[in-house]
């Protein structure tokens, strides 16, 4: 076995140690010509990356990956909070975590590469849309995965689904507004290709329809600024509903900001969000919202991925969050 080190590979190939490391770990965005030169040197000197050496020695650390699939980045309060909780639950079990933001199809391939090369043993994926061929490929090939708010037609014993009970949450939001005696009720929906947005909208509209109420649906895309812009336009046109259900707390804040900036008291519109993020409790006025035990969901995610990695059987491969209505000032 060669005793050559990564510093030697970098020197012989004519690249930085960082670039060599990225090639070894299949990072996206590295030119093919660079990869070829570095891999040629690696093969010539039979270089063995440290992680492979640890695997051969039977001393591999437990490492799981957290992958956020969202073009908007990590600006979402939900993403920030769930990542922090998963890291906390992992540390309690002496498990290391690799966190990665995935924005393109090319980057999604990296999940498979990181599992294949032994960098991680399993993945927790958050924010996937319903049209993810790269994710479906992982499921079909029985990679160890925990998926948040995802639906698949493929049945795999290596996939654990954690859902936010979105449909029932949408119904609960509608019931809350109906019990206030409201008739004009609008909905700021999430992204059309994400399960959470679709099911929250479906549950909300079904409950309203059962009570003879037709709602206007506005595409807020789970984004504060988009919801704020749309609601500002409605306000200026004189189209102000009695109640609004936003598919997440960020959009609820966007609606509140639109009211404030147009000198309209927030009490004029009954507003309810979804997720019970920390910001919904800290923002003033405090936001009424639908929430679930995110701490428990994070714990379930880490517990499940470790069982899958260990090859243990899981009685049921789906966990639905327990819902609760938090009535506050809005």
From TrEMBL:
Q: Where is the HTH lacI-type domain?
A: 4-58
Classification via Pfam families: LacI (PF00356), Peripla_BP_3 (PF13377)
Arranged from A to Z, the UniProt key words for this protein are: DNA-binding, Transcription, Transcription regulation
Q: Output the PROSITE patterns linked to this UniProt entry.
A: HTH_LACI_2 (PS50932)
What is this protein's record name?
A: LacI family transcriptional regulator
For this protein's source organism, the top of the classification is: Bacteria, Fusobacteriati, Fusobacteriota, Fusobacteriia, Fusobacteriales
The organism's place on the tree of life at top rank: Bacteria
Q: Which residues form the signal peptide?
A: none
MF terms (GO), sorted A to Z? DNA-binding transcription factor activity; transcription cis-regulatory region binding
């Amino acid at each position: 076995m060669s005793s050559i080190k990564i510093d030697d590979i970098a020197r012989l190939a004519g690249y930085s140690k960082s670039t060599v490391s990225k090639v070894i770990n299949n990072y996206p965005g590295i030119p093919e010509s660079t990869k070829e030169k570095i891999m040629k040197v690696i093969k010539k000197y039979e270089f063995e990356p440290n992680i492979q050496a640890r695997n051969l020695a039977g001393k591999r650390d437990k490492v799981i990956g957290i992958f956020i699939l969202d073009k908007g980045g990590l600006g979402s309060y939900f993403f920030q909070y769930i990542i922090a909780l998963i890291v906390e639950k992992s540390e309690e079990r002496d498990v290391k975590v690799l966190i990665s933001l995935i924005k393109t199809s090319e980057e999604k391939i990296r999940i498979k590469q990181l599992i294949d090369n032994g960098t991680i043993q399993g993945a927790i994926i958050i924010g996937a849309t319903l049209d993810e061929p790269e994710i479906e490929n992982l499921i079909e090939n029985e990679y160890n995965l925990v998926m948040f708010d995802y639906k698949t037609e493929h049945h795999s014993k290596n996939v654990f689904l954690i859902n936010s009970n979105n449909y029932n949450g949408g119904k609960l939001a509608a019931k809350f507004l109906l019990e206030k005696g409201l008739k004009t009720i609008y909905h700021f929906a999430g992204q059309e290709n994400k399960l959470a947005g679709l099911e929250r909208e479906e549950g909300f509209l079904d409950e309203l329809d059962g009570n003879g109420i037709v709602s206007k649906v506005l595409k807020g895309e789970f984004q504060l600024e988009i919801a704020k812009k749309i609601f500002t336009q409605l306000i200026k046109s004189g189209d102000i509903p009695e109640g609004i259900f936003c598919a997440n707390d960020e959009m609820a804040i966007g609606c509140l900001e639109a009211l404030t900036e147009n000198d309209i008291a927030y009490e004029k519109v009954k507003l309810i969000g979804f997720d019970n993020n920390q910001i919904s409790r800290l923002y003033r006025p405090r936001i009424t919202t639908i929430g679930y035990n995110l701490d428990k969901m994070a714990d379930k995610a880490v517990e499940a991925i470790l069982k899958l990695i260990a090859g243990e059987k899981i009685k049921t491969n789906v966990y639905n969050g327990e819902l609760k209505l938090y009535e506050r000032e809005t």
